[in-house]
């Protein structure tokens, strides 16, 4: 589990935008994928590089490196891992630091690229696919294919171990222009969970609901039978928020009727043909069910508008619990997650519901998002730069960059230390290490390229097996995901990471907000009864078509065919 301060990164949707600034730069090395970088090293640069082993370069070199200034890192120049990295590789990094806020980082990055005053490498560039393609084809970002093949065994192995990775970062022209930071958070992939007050279920003699009918009956019992036992009708059967990490009311319930993934444009894939969930009969039935819950007072009327802090206030209600069922990626979205807190122990996730037609899906979220590392045509030592990135993809590089120094920040695990899978762990973070949000200068705090694969996350570090302690949080989320959610994803999934051409990206930029706003507003109107599902359904479908959904699907179908139907 990441710290609360970094959970915003998980729930931030990848915004597609088209960069219109033209950069005057050298052209890339022809049409051949992985062509020779136009700014690249030459004999002198390559001759200074050790193809294997360390240091990476025989004679020390310097590289300017773009990165955000993290509020949790005291000073990247004096940071323990920065110094360790230089000693190991013989590469000195001259940091070009920008404010860490997303908007400020994007603005500064684009100004640098437009002015030509960009660095040798982007260490944490948050490079969108549109930026990779635009600046890659202009020659600003050099193709990495051949460099990876010759100098990056860890990255090459990652391509073999993670089936979607190489395709996700390969541009339509066949080149790889940037490397992502991989974080295969298993429970995050199935994060559209539903948490139910198990204490209430026990008091009312109910089992965890398995079907939509069970769910309805449970909510009715929560509303009418005083499960918190205070003699007041203060129970809120079902609440949520549109601003939290999968705390929206619709997703979990709708997946009992049709596969529903708003984070991936409501796409559904059948035999390689792309479509949308939001014109399907199952979507209509799901709206009817949600409308029924709302009309009978089983859904909190504030659930569609309240902010995350308002949801937390309800989850942390003093004296006694008032909330019954709450969707969320983890319980910290709606109740206190501090070490001394106890309310969260009353809530357990339930499995995806089965709908009237047998559907039982869960939202599945997997992909690499924006890339972080790229080499520009100013770099005189591209071979050394790719070897640097490759070290950060190693288990040692990933561990040290994320956790700091062995012995001071973490130690090798003892024989009885277990990981989230319940098998032997490799290391454990020391109790004296830094807590959430504390300023430290020992590691890079998840900055830069690194490889936290599912295997690494689930086997490397120790986790308590007592799932109702905060030390056992990762174990709790892993077990719930494994036992309840895995296997409920659709057999075919449209990839979340797919390149669009600049023309396609510009079209999507225009269409996506119109479509998203139309669908969201229509859902609310149908659920809250402002529109009749029976009378206004055909008009809704016409409006969906008029919003450009057919063109939107066509754009992504074309992009999909280029990569996955070769």
Helix and strand topology:
Elements: H1 7-11, H2 42-47, E1 61-69, H3 80-89, E2 91-99, H4 102-115, E3 121-122, H5 129-137, H6 145-151, H7 153-161, H8 165-169, E4 182-183, H9 186-189, E5 193-197, H10 198-204, H11 212-224, E6 236-238, H12 250-254, E7 267-270, E8 273-276, H13 281-295, H14 308-315, E9 323-328, E10 347-350, E11 374-375, H15 382-392, H16 395-403, E12 410-412, E13 427-429, E14 451-452, H17 454-459, H18 473-485, H19 502-528, H20 533-546, H21 549-564
Parallel strand pairs: 1-2, 1-3, 4-14, 6-9
Antiparallel strand pairs: 3-11, 5-9, 5-10, 7-8, 12-13
Helix pairs in contact: 13-19, 19-20, 19-21
Report on this structure.
The chain is of the alpha/beta class and 566 residues long. 38% of the residues lie in helices and 10% in strands. It contains 21 helices and 14 strands. The strands form five sheets. A four-stranded mixed β-sheet has the order 2-1-3-11. Strands 6-9-5-10 form a four-stranded mixed β-sheet, sandwiched between helices. β7 (267-270) and β8 (273-276) form a beta hairpin. α13 (281-295) packs across α19 (502-528). The radius of gyration is 25 Å and the shape is globular.
Radius of gyration: 25 Å
Strand content: 5-15%
User: Unreliable segments (pLDDT under 50, ≥5 consecutive)?
Assistant: 1-31, 36-43
Distance between the termini: 38 Å
Q: Give me the secondary-structure category.
A: alpha/beta
């Amino acid at each position: 589990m990441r710290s609360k301060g970094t959970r915003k990164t998980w729930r931030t949707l990848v915004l597609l935008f088209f960069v219109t600034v033209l950069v005057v730069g050298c052209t890339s090395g022809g049409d051949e994928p992985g062509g020779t970088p136009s700014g690249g090293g030459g004999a002198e640069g390559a001759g200074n590089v050790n193809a294997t082993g360390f240091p990476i370069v025989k004679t020390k070199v310097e590289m300017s490196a773009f990165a955000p200034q993290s509020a949790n890192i005291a000073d990247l120049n004096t940071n323990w891992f920065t110094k360790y990295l230089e000693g190991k590789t013989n590469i000195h990094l001259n940091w070009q630091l920008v404010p860490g806020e997303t908007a400020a980082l994007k603005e500064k990055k684009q100004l640098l690229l437009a002015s030509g005053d960009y660095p040798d490498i982007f260490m944490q560039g948050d490079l969108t696919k549109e930026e990779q393609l635009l600046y890659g084809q202009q020659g600003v970002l050099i193709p990495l294919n051949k460099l990876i093949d010759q100098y990056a065994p860890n990255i090459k192995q990652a391509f073999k171990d993670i089936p979607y990775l190489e395709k996700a970062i390969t541009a339509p022209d066949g080149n790889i222009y940037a490397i992502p930071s991989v974080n295969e958070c298993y429970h995050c992939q199935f994060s559209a969970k539903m948490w139910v007050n198990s204490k209430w279920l026990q008091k009312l003699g109910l089992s965890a609901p398995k079907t939509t009918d069970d769910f309805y009956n449970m909510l009715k019992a929560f509303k009418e039978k005083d499960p918190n036992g205070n003699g007041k009708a203060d129970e809120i059967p079902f609440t949520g928020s549109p601003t939290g990490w999968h705390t929206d009311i619709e997703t979990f319930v709708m997946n009992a009727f049709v596969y529903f993934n708003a984070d991936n444009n409501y796409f559904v894939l059948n035999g390689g043909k792309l479509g949308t969930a939001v014109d399907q009969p199952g979507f209509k039935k799901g709206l009817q069910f949600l409308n029924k819950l709302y009309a009978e007072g089983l859904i909190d009327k504030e659930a569609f508008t309240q902010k995350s802090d308002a949801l937390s206030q309800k989850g942390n209600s003093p004296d006694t619990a008032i909330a019954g069922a709450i969707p969320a990626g983890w319980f910290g979205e709606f109740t206190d997650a501090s070490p001394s807190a106890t309310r969260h122990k009353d809530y357990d996730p339930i499995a995806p519901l089965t709908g009237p037609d047998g559907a039982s899906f869960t939202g599945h979220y997997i992909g690499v998002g924006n890339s972080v590392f790229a080499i520009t045509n100013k770099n005189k030592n591209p071979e050394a730069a790719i070897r640097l990135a490759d070290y950060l993809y190693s288990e040692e590089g990933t561990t040290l960059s994320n956790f700091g120094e062995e012995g001071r920040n973490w130690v090798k695990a003892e024989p009885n230390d277990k990981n989230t899978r319940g098998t032997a762990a490799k290391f454990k973070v020391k109790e004296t290490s830094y807590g959430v949000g504390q300023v430290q200068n020992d590691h890079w705090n998840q900055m830069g390229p690194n490889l936290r694969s599912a295997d690494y996350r689930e086997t490397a570090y120790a986790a308590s097996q007592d799932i109702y302690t905060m030390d056992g949080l990762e174990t709790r989320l892993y077990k719930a995901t494994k036992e309840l959610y895995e296997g409920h994803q659709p057999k075919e999934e449209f990839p979340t990471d797919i390149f669009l051409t600049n023309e396609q990206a510009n079209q999507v930029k225009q269409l996506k907000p119109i479509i998203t706003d139309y669908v969201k507003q229509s859902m609310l109107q149908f659920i809250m009864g402002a529109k009749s599902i029976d009378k206004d359904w055909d008009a809704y479908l016409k409006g969906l078509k008029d919003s450009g959904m057919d063109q939107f699907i066509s754009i992504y179908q074309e992009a999909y065919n280029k990569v996955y139907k070769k």
